[in-house]
């Protein structure tokens, strides 16, 4: 799959086409990380004053982390918030939060003192964070899209609306990619279950033929032997089916 930058030509960056490109690429994604990285990369193109972009996610257990970012310094600044339990990324990511949080001048910001000091020390003057609201299975996660600007008051009104649109894309991407991941996992689990059932069925058939016992008795024999040898039932069944000629000799 091509990157957002590869797909986007220079003369479309100020138009609606970047979002058309982003939507098309998101449909092709198969993992949550891949989808969110596309959104983060796109932010650097459609929000020119965003010098730094990251995504904050919150696990069902309440643990915050940064899965994607445009630069490693974003992880450092996000983690200041995670450690202190205070910051715009956390406020926006919480399901009971305001959904949109910003600071136009971090040098005088007093809501999140530890984060504000760290951000200014790294050369950032303002930030805006918008909530990610996944749906369906992906609703087990919550998060925020975070954009840092070098200058106080660094984002125009138009860029703020663009950030909200980006967070909507990120939310849809999270739901879509999570759905793909779950579907692939379910297919793998189903295939494993079918393979396991087939192996056990074959092993039962071998025991029934060799020992002249019923299907229930053959299964009970496999279970008992599995417990006695402390091996998984499917592994024992595989051994019986693959080496039954040796066992007969």
Q: Determine the mean pLDDT.
A: 77
User: What would CATH call the homologous superfamily of the largest domain?
Assistant: GAF domain
CATH class of the largest domain: Alpha Beta
Radius of gyration: 27 Å
InterPro entries: ANTAR, CheY-like_superfamily, GAF, GAF-like_dom_sf, GAF_ANTAR, WH-like_DNA-bd_sf
Protein name: GAF domain-containing protein
Keywords: Kinase, Transcription, Transcription regulation, Transferase
Pfam families: ANTAR, GAF_2
Please describe what this structure looks like.
With about 250 residues, the protein is an alpha+beta fold. The chain folds into two domains: about 5-180, Beta-Lactamase (2-Layer Sandwich), CATH 3.30.450.40; about 185-249, Orthogonal Bundle (Arc Repressor Mutant, subunit A), CATH 1.10.10. It has helices at about 5, 15-30, 30-45, 70-85, 90-95, 115-120, 155-210, 215-230, 235-249, and strands spanning about 50-60, 65-70, 100-105, 125-130, 140-150. A five-stranded antiparallel sheet has the order 2-1-5-4-3, with helices on both faces. Strand 1 (about 50-60) and strand 2 form a beta hairpin. The model is unreliable at about 5-15 and about 135-140 (pLDDT under 50).
């Amino acid at each position: 799959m091509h990157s957002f930058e590869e797909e986007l030509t220079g003369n479309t960056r100020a138009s609606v086409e970047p979002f058309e490109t982003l939507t098309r690429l998101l449909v092709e994604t198969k993992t949550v990380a891949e989808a969110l990285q596309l959104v983060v990369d796109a932010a650097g193109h459609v929000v020119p004053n965003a010098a730094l972009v990251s995504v904050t996610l919150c696990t069902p257990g309440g643990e915050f982390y940064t899965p994607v970012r445009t630069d490693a310094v974003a992880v450092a600044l996000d983690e200041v918030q995670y450690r202190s339990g205070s910051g715009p990324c956390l406020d926006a990511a919480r399901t009971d939060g305001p959904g949109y949080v910003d600071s136009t001048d971090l040098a005088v910001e007093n809501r999140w003192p530890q984060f504000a000091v760290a951000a200014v020390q790294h050369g950032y003057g303002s930030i805006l964070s918008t909530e990610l609201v996944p749906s369906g299975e992906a609703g087990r996660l919550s998060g925020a899209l975070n954009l840092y600007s070098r200058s106080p008051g660094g984002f125009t009104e138009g860029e703020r609306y663009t950030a909200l649109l980006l967070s909507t894309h990120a939310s849809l991407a999270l739901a879509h990619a999570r759905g793909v991941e779950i579907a692939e996992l379910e297919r793998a689990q189903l295939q494993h279950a079918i393979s396991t059932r087939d192996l056990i069925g074959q092993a039962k058939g071998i025991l029934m033929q060799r020992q002249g016992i019923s299907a229930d008795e053959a299964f009970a024999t496999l279970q008992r032997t599995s417990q006695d040898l402390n091996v998984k039932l499917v592994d024992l069944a595989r051994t019986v089916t693959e080496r039954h000629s040796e066992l007969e000799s």
